[in-house]
Amino acid sequence: VNLEAQDWERGFLVATATVLVVLFVAILGSVVDAGIDLPADAGQIDPRKLSIADPAANPVPFNELGVVAAAEGEPVDFRVVLLAAEWRFFAGEEAGSRGAIPRIEVPAGSRAEFVLTSLDTVHGFLVADLAVNATVIPGQITRVTVDLDRPGEYRIVCHEFCGIGHHTMYGVLEVTP
Amino acid sequence: MTGTTLAADPVASAQRRLLGLHFFVGLGGIAVGLIAGALVALDRSGVAVDPARFYQGLTLHGVSLVYVTALGFGGSFLSLTTMSALRCPLASRRLVQVSLVAAGVGAALLVAAVVLDRAAVGVTFSPPLDAGAAFYLGAALMVASVWAASANLIMTVRVWRRDHPRERLPLLAFASLVVLLAWDLATIGIGVELVVFLLPWSLGFTGTVDPLLDRILFWFTSPTHPSFFVLPAAVSWLVLLPHQIAAPRVRSTAVRGVFVAMMVLGVPGGLAAQAADPGVDENLKLLHVASGLAGLLPLVAAGWLVLSSLEGRARRAGCVGAVGWLRMLPWSDPSAAAQLLAMAGFAVGSGLALVADSGTLGLLVKGTAYEPGLLHLTMGAGLTLTIMGVAYWLVPHLTGHGLWGRRAALVQPWLWLVGSMVLTAGTTGAGLGGQPAAIPLSATAYADKAWQVWGAISAAGGALMGVAGALFLAVMVGTLRNRAPATVEVPTGPEERSPAWLDRPGAWLVVAVAAAVVAYFPVFVTHNYELDVARFVGL
Fold first, then answer.
1. Which of B419, B226, B266 is nearest to B341 (CA)?
2. How many C-beta atoms lie closer than 10 Å to residue B280's C-beta?
3. Integer Cα distance of A102 and B430 in angstroms
4. Which of B384, B245, B214 lies closest to B317, judged by CA?
5. E strand intervals along B360-401
């Protein structure tokens, strides 16, 4: 047995473990300090009680779709409430009706919360350029908070396979100056 | 009983024939997977592919390579290695038959369900998309096949222990058993998902499913570090390869420690893959991320052990210099070359996977093409190329036919690795550019120009893999038809006596179960079971 190799081995493993610990501390730091949260448990909702045609009768918060102002004192400036269903994101009539690609306009320099759920299959909600990445699961409410700093047009896509029209499911988020 | 008498033992020979057929079920999965993969490559190269066909092809590609090939290889290969290590037939001929029939019928059902019934749901099953009962039954049978094989191994080891009370379990048998025990524990996830939820639901006995619960069960089975599907390949890398190429053997104690650590740290990392999911507590996700990172340590240790053995072999041959010994590796042996390249690809893929499963960092790439990109190095290079390398000695061993087309078998691993690297480079580039994973580029209205360029690179890599795969299948067919006889033995050799605490797979399974309970008990307790979702038919 080569003892020198065993010494190297130990040193190498300690170095690897150190790198992994540093990485994990950085991940914790991004959550605790930088406020980048993973989507988590934000409540449940019965998808059979949801309607796209008549959202006013939906349970809160899906009774108002699209950009909804937040109340005074809330940590966000407004919410973007969306329903995902094969194969569209629905943002209410102002932003786009069934069959159209939703176009959501929001002001730059604001803090927004996206609130979503699905009416049918599992969908995804990816705004790659904003590092917004969440799964939209029927029965579960998805909430993601993001700072909208840079004006521009951002692409929203479904990135969770949801059936034959999966690749047609997208939208546009326009952050206006 | 010695090795030669095992070869002559009629019971062992009959079992070997059945296990050989089982192994060929796994190889059949590679053939199907390659054909289906060509459809995806065609789309990436700019040819318009009907989206329905594309999703069908994508599902067939993943399902055949993961459930048919990975599970079929693990069940058969680890049974053969155990038999060889213990120098006795397996305890139950019936279980060998059950395992083979389950794998054969399961594979046929899975492929038929996707090809004929268009069960396009992807590898993750994606409920509430309904893939049909035949699909779920097929997948469940592939899992049952693994369970039957592992039950047989447990019985065989028990008999062997009774007959050899003072001996340590040989390393090869220990590693094989630990991997199948790890699979038993992990596959409880998809086993329950398929048998308790999806199958009755698809048959109409229950009206609804719970998609989040099903996702939790799926990822219970499929942690990233270490990727459980790749574990049988690690048995070949750490235990067989050093003997195969006459390298200094790897310390048995260290290898046992590595496999035990992989089993214990694997399952508690499943939620790291669900970083973007709602309905799961954030702290629990971070706990699983930590466990997944810890699971990288045994992988790194394994890599170190293999590398030091390989380097030792080259140094013994008189090689000097820091990297010069790499050229002295047994590149002229097709089986060794394939496995060396497989390990190289796997190492790069594991590095990419580290990003994807690092919680908030992973949000940059989760669900994008980055993920299938790295899978072509961990599963495509790491596992599948190792299976090919193993086949280069195992098929001659099983059939007594000499390896046919040695030159093709020598070129094939290089083509495969370069192909998988190029494919991953293209797909990773597209993923970092925000392309979602499973979309037919040719039909996607919002596709970026850059994605098309990355897609063309992926397609070129896929084409190389296709050529390499065809070469491999040709070598296999040629070998089966080859009349030149050959006697190839399972590569084994002496080992040092390991401490007793590393000779107890059952005790370590208890530790692994405890770790899984600690990690998942809060998940299952806090899950809201009241919400069920009705059925949605995919295509």
1. B419
2. 26
3. 24
4. B245
5. none
Chain A nearest C-alpha distance from B121 (Å):
7
For each of chain B's 539 residues, which pLDDT tens digit applies? 444 567 789 999 999 999 999 999 999 999 999 999 999 999 999 999 999 999 999 999 999 999 999 999 999 999 999 999 999 999 999 999 999 999 999 999 999 999 997 789 999 999 999 999 999 999 999 999 999 999 999 999 999 999 999 999 999 999 999 999 999 999 999 999 999 999 999 999 988 899 999 999 999 998 777 788 999 999 999 999 999 999 988 899 999 999 999 999 988 889 999 999 999 999 999 999 999 999 999 999 999 999 989 988 988 888 877 788 888 899 999 999 999 999 999 999 999 999 999 999 999 999 999 999 999 999 999 999 999 999 999 999 999 999 999 999 999 999 999 999 999 999 999 999 999 999 999 999 999 999 999 999 999 999 999 999 999 999 999 999 999 999 999 998 889 999 999 999 999 999 999 999 999 999 999 998 887 666 554 33
Annotate B39-68 with three-state secondary structure.
HHHHHHCCCCCCHHHHHHHHHHHHHHHHHH
Q: Which of B276, B234, B488 is nearest to A135 (CA)?
A: B276
What residues does B241 pair with on adjacent strands? none
Q: Do A31 and B282 touch (CB under 8 A)?
A: yes
Q: Which residues of A touch B444 (CB under 8 A)?
A: 167-168
Determine the Cα–Cα distance for residues B374 and B534; give it in Å rounded to an integer.
34
The minimal CB distance from A141 to the residues B278, B360, B438 is found for B278
Token pair for A41: 């448990």
Paired sense of beta strands A66-69 and A78-85, if any = antiparallel
Please state whether beta strands A110-118 and A78-85 pair in parallel, antiparallel, or not at all (unpaired).
parallel
Half-sphere exposure in the Cβ direction for B267 (13 Å, CA): 30
Question: How many other β-carbons are positioned within 10 Å of the β-carbon of residue A40?
Answer: 16
Using the beta-carbon criterion (under 8 Å), do A129 and B434 form an inter-chain contact? yes
The answer to whether B62 and B141 have CB atoms below 8 angstroms apart is: no
Query: Which among B50, B124, B193, B363 is the top mutation candidate for probing chain A, defined by the most A β-carbons within 10 Å of its own β-carbon?
Result: B363
Are the C-beta atoms of B298 and A47 separated by less than 8 Å? no
The SS3 of residue A46 is: coil
- Taking CB atoms and an 8 Å limit, are A140 and B212 in contact across chains? yes
Q: Which residues of A touch B454 (CB under 8 A)?
A: none
Q: Which of residues 89-128 of A touch B (CB under 8 A)?
A: 120-122, 124, 126, 128
B369 and B425 in contact (C-beta within 8 Å)?
no
Query: Is B345 exposed, middle or buried, given 0-12, 13-18 or 19+ CB atoms closer than 10 A?
Result: buried
Helices (H), B116-249: 133-163, 171-186, 188-192, 199-202, 211-221, 231-235, 241-244
ipTM: 0.94
Q: Do A44 and B364 touch (CB under 8 A)?
A: no
DSSP state of B383: I
